[in-house]
Design a protein that fits this description.
Layout: E1 3-10, E2 19-24, E3 27-31, E4 47-50, H1 53-57, E5 62-66, H2 72-75, H3 78-82, E6 89-91, H4 93-105, E7 115-117, E8 123-125, E9 130-135, E10 144-150, E11 153-158, H5 175-184, E12 186-192, H6 207-218, E13 223-228, H7 232-244, E14 248-252, H8 254-266, E15 293-299, H9 303-313, E16 326-329, H10 338-351, E17 354-357, H11 370-380, E18 384-388, H12 392-405, E19 419-424, E20 427-434, E21 439-443, E22 445-450, H13 452-464, E23 466-474, E24 479-480, E25 485-489, H14 498-516, H15 523-542, E26 547-554
Parallel strand pairs: 3-5, 5-6, 6-7, 11-12, 12-18, 13-15, 13-16, 14-15, 16-17, 23-26
Antiparallel strand pairs: 1-2, 1-19, 2-3, 4-21, 8-9, 9-10, 10-11, 19-20, 21-22, 23-24, 23-25
């Protein structure tokens, strides 16, 4: 009999950042290693990843990282994890190829790391357990659920899935395999929650293809389609409909281009020869105004809207929107992108382009809705339910679904990040133990980690700007060598606020004279006092709080003072 522990370092109450730990007799399996895309208020933050300090402390016990599919929310933290932990990475061939490409994009040589490509129905055996992948339906090919067989029953990790059968073979779920897993006996289902609040089944609405055909056939000018780069199933649908209408395709967006290139090279994306157009920069001889080309403007979260805004304003180097264009939005605004979407619509309306916003009801949902989740319960018959992958309100929505289905409160476990649940001999024995967890904000590279103080300073800079006070003195003779130079950015217009500038000069002079009267100059205290007195004055005068940075240069010493 086994002792089994489960917890999430991310993904519990998060929109992304999926990283889960299954510990079986002291050996650790890591399920996914994803990032979370930041909201607009996290200025300059490129990604949020889980704090893996606990994993680092247990790195000798890790047998591998098992990736479910090729989306950033599930593979995006790999560069950070592999830089600190040496372990094998498992996944289907498309997932592994995208993961390798992602490492290369982060200046990491993927040949330095150990990857193992797994085929569906291949069992990877370890001492006390075995692991197997099964096909699931999602927006990228060869997406997989993961089953971990233990002597006390199976753990099934089912993330980002639907049961839609209107897809090609690279995207189809395997009901037969799920039934076989059920026959083994499922101890716990780790089931995604992102779509738990959606009623019904998630599937492709056949009317979307009819609508696209109508748009492509009736458009007199260019057709530009805004969409998300991670939805390869939708990208393939646009490609198919464009070719059906006798048009070629151009993909704009670095990430989508790379994913499509990988998929095409591996045979999972089908683009007929000579149907893909590579655009040249706009110049005096080239405007890229090809009416026989469908332009796919792709990106993540806000990026399709931002790119279309730029095209509408004439700043883009590839496309300048004109009145005869038709712009199709297949990217409904996500939470936090509503403002930029509204601004984009406004920019395009001024140009006079025809705007087609595809109804959300027609677009594919790539996460399990309520009836999909219940169907999963019905097929595999788990003893316990653990909602994962979703904001906490969606985890609670799945909890209610499980209760409606017939599970009792003590058979459903809603966890926070770091919260551990323990099973002994197939029975839940402990709950609410915790391990070290948290979030790391990535700024530029995965080697960087910025904290809340930096974010707060960026917020202040974006709202109230800064004031720089630059002055020269001789610390040895106690002499001020010049009047301070006052520089303001994002705070006040200097020429219209001479009284404020003079008052800052007076504060500097008074604080300098105080220091000159001492036996020695305490540089840190000196600058702190200038900063405090200037900030207090500026707030009383303007009710604003700019960042104040004193830069005092002692010309008798080579130590050009640091900015504190």
């Amino acid at each position: 009999m086994a002792q089994i522990k489960f917890c999430g370092l991310g993904g519990m109450g998060d929109n992304g950042k999926n990283l889960y730990i299954l510990e079986i007799n002291k050996k650790i399996i890591v399920l996914d290693a994803g990032l979370q895309h930041p909201s607009g208020d996290l200025l300059g933050v490129d990604a949020i990843v889980p704090d893996i300090s606990y994993l680092v402390s247990r790195k000798e016990d890790i047998v591998g990282v098992f990736l479910s599919h090729a989306h950033d929310k599930h593979i995006g933290a790999l560069p950070m994890l592999l830089s600190r932990i040496k372990t094998k990475i498992y996944g289907t061939d498309f997932t592994i190829e995208v993961a390798r490409d992602f490492l290369g994009d982060n200046k990491m040589n993927h040949y330095d790391y150990e990857f193992e490509v797994i085929k569906f129905n291949t069992i990877i055996k370890f001492e006390d357990f075995a692991v197997e992948y099964f096909p699931t339906t999602h927006s990228v090919p060869l997406s997989g659920g993961i089953v971990i067989y233990t002597e006390d029953g199976a753990f099934v990790y089912a993330t980002d899935f639907t049961f839609d059968q209107n897809v090609n073979k690279y995207y189809k779920s395997d009901f037969h395999k799920l039934a076989k897993i059920s026959d083994y006996g499922v101890l716990a289902l780790l089931c995604e929650s992102s779509g738990a609040a959606n009623v019904g089944h998630s599937n492709i609405n056949v009317n979307i293809k009819k609508l696209l055909r109508k748009i492509l056939n009736q458009a007199e000018g260019r057709v530009i389609v805004g969409m998300y780069s991670t939805e390869l199933l939708n990208i393939q649908m646009i490609i198919d409909e464009a070719i059906r209408a006798g048009k070629k395709v151009s993909i704009i967006g670095r990430k989508a281009q790379r994913l499509v290139n990988i998929g095409e090279r591996m045979g999972y994306i089908d683009i007929p020869e000579d149907s893909l157009v590579n655009l040249k920069f706009i110049d005096g001889d080239n405007s890229n105004e090809f009416n026989d080309v469908v332009f796919l403007v792709t990106g993540e979260r806000h990026e399709p809207f931002f790119m279309l805004q730029r095209m509408g304003k004439g700043y883009d180097r590839l496309i300048k929107l004109i009145e005869s264009d038709t712009v199709v939005f297949m990217c409904p605004p996500l939470i936090g992108t509503e403002k930029i979407a509204a601004k984009t619509y406004n920019v395009l309306c001024k140009i006079g382009v025809e705007i087609v916003k595809i109804d959300k009801k027609l677009l594919s949902k790539f996460h399990a809705s309520s009836e999909d989740i219940k169907l999963m319960y019905s097929i595999i018959k788990p003893k316990y339910i653990i909602p994962v992958n979703g904001e906490y309100k969606y985890q609670l929505a799945q909890r209610e679904l499980a209760k409606e289905y017939g599970y009792k409160d003590n058979e459903i476990f809603s966890l926070d990040n770091g919260e551990v649940i323990t099973f002994d001999k197939g029975i839940k024995t402990k709950f609410h133990d915790t391990v070290e967890n948290g979030s790391i904000m990535v700024d530029g590279t995965f080697e960087s980690n910025i904290n809340d103080k930096v974010i707060k300073e960026r917020e202040l800079l974006s709202q109230d700007g800064f004031v720089l006070i630059i002055a020269n003195l001789n610390g040895e003779t106690r002499e001020m060598l010049n009047k301070p130079e006052i520089v303001s950015r994002g705070f006040i217009y200097m020429k219209d606020n001479e009284d404020i500038i003079k008052e800052i000069e007076i504060i500097y002079q008074l604080e300098t004279e105080k220091q000159f009267k001492r036996d020695y100059i305490n540089w840190k205290e000196y600058k702190d006092n200038i900063r405090y007195q200037v900030q207090r004055y500026l707030y009383n005068k303007t009710k604003r709080k700019p960042i104040v940075i004193p830069v005092i240069i002692d010309n008798k010493k080579e130590a050009i003072c640091e900015i504190i």
